[in-house]
Design the sequence.
């Protein structure tokens, strides 16, 4: 924790204010030292400073104190965005369990995430299909058995590809709905007993932070394309609308016992698997120019939003959607920027997209 202690003279007493990370100028530091020397005996300084810094820490716990020794369970945890979310939490003191279908990829990512903090425990459980409640329940049981609890959940498993409604098969549509909507529901059902237990244990009254930190919180990873609708993305739009609705219902039904449920909706995030599949590298500049902040987002910025919701700062945040997209959705057009499709020409021409079976490969005309 980085703390600068400033002292001012006020009625012959040393009065302090705290500023994290950014200390005052050298001139102000020198002035503060003079005031300190004139108001506090030198032999009392160590005890005085220790007491002040301790008081500061107690008055506003830092994120690492709130998340320390908590357990996060994450579906889709081997993906670019979800792994960054989990990594940030592990860095702050949490232990984690990530699940996925690919055994090698999931176990490898778990080992990589564990390097974020010495002594951390990160389980990587492969061969888990979120469409199967039994598969998820087994993973949840193992997580609790080995790590002791589940305090936070990130429902991040998802599927995506480009396809117009004319080309989209019933099976392809169902596949995305099953992964996103059914998978999110199964994740909730398998973990909610543990979230309720954690929420009761770590509940805050909104005035005094819980001395044991936070817990009992779930985040659903969604998107923004269903806010306006988008061609070639009907299946994803419908699925993510369902995920958002699920989160809201969870917040209402389980809020009374202290569980919070929220959505994080990433916009265009650079260097992710999804962005690489859906947009070409050549179109990056034009894509970024269409975003109010003029750039793609980073996975760190999604991780920051995650920490906010799971920390003491997010105590009263419930049934909310945190959009992390630089304002991009406000300017979403009908075209799929950077993908090589020009609206409405590609629809009227009857062109088809290859790779629409749901496999993770770049869709092409």
Sequence:
């Amino acid at each position: 924790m980085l703390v600068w202690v400033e002292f001012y003279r006020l009625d012959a007493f040393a009065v302090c204010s705290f500023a994290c990370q950014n200390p005052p100028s050298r001139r102000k530091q020198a002035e503060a030292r003079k005031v300190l020397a004139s108001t506090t005996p030198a032999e009392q300084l160590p005890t005085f400073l220790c007491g002040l810094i301790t008081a500061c820490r107690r008055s506003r716990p830092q994120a690492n104190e709130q998340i320390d020794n908590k357990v996060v369970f994450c579906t889709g945890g081997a993906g670019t965005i979800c792994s960054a979310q989990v990594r940030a939490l592990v860095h702050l003191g949490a232990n984690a369990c990530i699940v996925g279908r690919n055994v090698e990829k999931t176990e490898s990512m778990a080992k990589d995430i564990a390097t974020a903090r010495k002594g951390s425990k990160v389980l990587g459980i492969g061969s888990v299909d979120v469409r199967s409640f039994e598969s998820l329940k087994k993973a949840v049981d193992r997580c609790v058995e080995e790590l002791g609890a589940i305090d936070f959940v990130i429902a991040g498993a998802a599927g995506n590809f480009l396809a117009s409604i004319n080309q989209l098969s019933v099976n392809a549509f169902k596949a995305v709905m099953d992964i996103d909507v059914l998978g999110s529901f199964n994740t909730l059902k398998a973990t909610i007993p543990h979230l309720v237990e954690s929420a009761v244990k770590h509940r805050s009254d909104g005035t005094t932070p819980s001395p044991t930190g936070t817990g009992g919180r779930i985040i659903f990873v969604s998107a923004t394309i269903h806010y306006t609708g988008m061609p070639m993305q009907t299946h994803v739009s419908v699925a993510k609308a369902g995920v958002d609705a699920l989160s809201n219902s969870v917040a209402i039904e389980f809020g009374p016992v202290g569980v919070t449920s929220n959505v994080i909706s990433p916009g265009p995030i650079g260097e992710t698997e999804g962005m690489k599949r859906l947009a070409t590298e050549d179109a990056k500049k034009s894509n970024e120019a269409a975003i109010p902040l003029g750039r793609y987002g980073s996975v760190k910025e999604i991780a920051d939003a995650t920490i906010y919701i799971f920390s003491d700062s997010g105590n009263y945040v419930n049934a909310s959607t945190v959009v992390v997209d630089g304002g991009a959705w406000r300017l979403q057009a009908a075209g799929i920027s950077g993908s090589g499709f020009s609206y409405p020409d590609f629809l009227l021409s009857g062109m088809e997209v290859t790779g629409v079976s749901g496999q993770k490969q770049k869709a092409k005309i």
About this structure: Confidence is low (pLDDT under 50) at residues 1-22, 47-60, 358-365. The longest helix spans residues 170-201. The beta strands are 3-10, 13-20, 71-75, 95-99, 122-125, 152-155, 217-221, 260-266, 321-324. Residues 3-59 form one domain.
